[in-house]
Design brief:
The chain has 179 residues and is of the alpha+beta class. The chain folds into two domains: 3-81, Outer Surface Protein A, domain 3, CATH 3.90.930; 84-165, Ribosomal protein L6 (Outer Surface Protein A, domain 3). It contains three helices and 13 strands. The longest helix has 22 residues, at 60-81. It is elongated, with a radius of gyration of 21 Å. The N and C termini lie far apart (52 Å).
């Protein structure tokens, strides 16, 4: 049996969870999320505590789905109550970010500026010119948008220039003259 799947999910006040036809709907103060769950999993709620369990005898695949389903529902509950954020830093001379309406405009040393529109349910804010904050209620969408921004100019190993997650360590290599 999955250790992660066995853990109960505490539902905070103001968050409502409904299951119908294999679709879990979570409503909270920040918004609403929906997700289809596996047919082999059942969801039970008692006194503000959700438990996910397999319907039939657990196989190796069902064990993996058990833990995954529990974690996805936990992320939905956490997202509609608190939300998720990813912080990015831009390092490099002349590299900067700016916000124009719903678009993030990045100057990253290319011959042109790169414009990235915010996906639905995700917002980006720019603090200063080198700090970007990506936030939203869907953990997957926030992480994917942050990864898409970082992919434009990943940190290079010689000077460390590029876009990185806040607190990310970039190992710097020696140049040609180093022995």
């Amino acid at each position: 049996m999955s250790r992660i799947g066995k853990a109960p999910i505490n539902v905070p006040q103001g968050v409502e969870v409904k299951v119908s036809d294999g679709v879990v709907t979570v409503k909270g103060p920040k918004g609403e999320l929906k997700r289809k769950i596996s047919d082999n999993m059942k969801l039970e709620e008692k006194d503000g505590v959700l438990t996910v369990s397999p319907i039939k005898e657990e196989t190796r695949k069902d064990s993996a789905m058990h833990g995954l389903t529990r974690k996805l529902i936990y992320n939905m509950v956490e997202g509609v109550s608190n939300g998720f954020t990813k912080d990015l830093e831009i390092v490099g001379v002349g590299y900067r970010a700016d916000k124009q309406g719903d678009n993030l405009v990045l100057s990253l040393g290319f011959s042109h500026q790169v414009t990235m529109p915010d996906p639905e349910g995700v917002t980006t804010t720019v603090e200063g010119q080198t700090k970007i904050k990506v936030s939203g209620i869907d953990r997957e969408a926030v992480g994917q948008h942050a990864a898409n921004i970082k992919r434009l100019r990943p940190p290079e190993p010689y000077k460390g220039k590029g876009i990185r997650y806040a607190g990310e360590y970039v190992r710097i290599k020696e140049g040609k003259t180093g022995k």
